[in-house]
Specification:
The mean pLDDT is 94. Strands 1, 2, 3, 4, 7, 8, 9, 10 and 11 form a nine-stranded mixed β-sheet that branches. The chain has one domain: LarA, N-terminal domain (Rossmann fold, 3-Layer(aba) Sandwich), CATH 3.40.50. It is an alpha/beta fold and 251 residues long.
């Protein structure tokens, strides 16, 4: 099986299914009873700044088909200073999606926390993180986006949604502590909680900036999937025309 499945986008249901089948995801999911889907809902902007709910629906349906008894949670902790995650769930259609699919929503910004240690870490020798990150298998669901500080944002940087503002808000937005040493901070966060599986919506893509700006031209029209988030993000960087070796958390 390829380390990263790369499938031409036709529609979310068929393309997500094809990509996940290529990496043998159904068999792996069948053995897991607790799944957390982590979309990128950094703020209330519509896709492709945020993860398209129909993309998330396709992944939910795949998980439910592979393991009908699995508990599925959609978890996110937004970065917006003006809204709480529950409001963004409602504004972007995730409240309706959860109801229709019979899954739970969780605001990671206010979830119960646990304290973890990482020997040798430069930025986070200890971190406070949601307990659910250690009880559920995490499926990261990013969009393809360039990023003004991190170079790009993909499956790995998407994990910043787990960082609670109660500990990592330095004032400008809910996760602003990460701006101080972005590359090392993202790397160390993923040493605590790496994605188990990643599926990227690269059907459109943002070419310059993670909160707006120009779309990729031409559109990549791809869905990517992998059990290796680093390899998936390196492939995504190439699609954006970036050298992943220039991006600290991917190097």
């Amino acid at each position: 099986m390829p380390p990263v499945a790369e499938v031409k986008f036709t529609d979310y249901r068929s393309s997500v299914t094809e990509a996940l089948d290529k990496i043998g995801a159904a068999k792996a999911i069948a053995g897991e009873d607790k799944i957390l889907l982590k979309p990128n809902l950094v703020n209330s902007s519509p896709p492709p700044v945020t993860t398209q709910p129909e993309f998330c629906r396709a992944v939910i349906e795949y998980v439910q088909a592979a393991n009908p008894n699995a508990e599925i949670v959609i978890g996110e902790g937004c970065g917006d200073l003006n809204y709480e995650t529950d409001e963004i769930f409602r504004m972007l259609g995730y409240e309706k999606l959860a109801e229709e699919c019979g899954v739970k929503l969780l605001d990671l910004n206010h979830a119960p926390l646990c304290k973890k240690k990482l020997e040798g870490a430069k930025v986070f020798p200890t971190m406070f993180l949601p307990e659910i990150a250690f009880t559920h298998k995490i499926i990261s669901l990013p969009n393809l986006k360039a990023h003004s500080l991190a170079g790009m944002t993909g499956a790995i940087k998407n994990m910043m949604g787990f960082a609670p503002p109660s500990h990592y808000n330095a004032g400008s937005w809910k996760k602003s502590f990460f701006h101080r040493q972005m590359q090392q901070s993202v790397k160390e966060l993923n040493m605590f909680i790496p994605p188990w599986l990643s599926v990227m919506d690269a059907s459109v893509g943002l070419a310059e900036y993670h909160l707006g700006g120009a779309l990729c031209d031409p559109a990549p029209e791809l869905i990517l999937a992998s059990f290796d988030a680093v390899e998936l993000d390196r492939k995504a960087a190439e699609i954006l025309g970036l050298n992943w070796r220039d991006i600290g958390h991917l190097r």
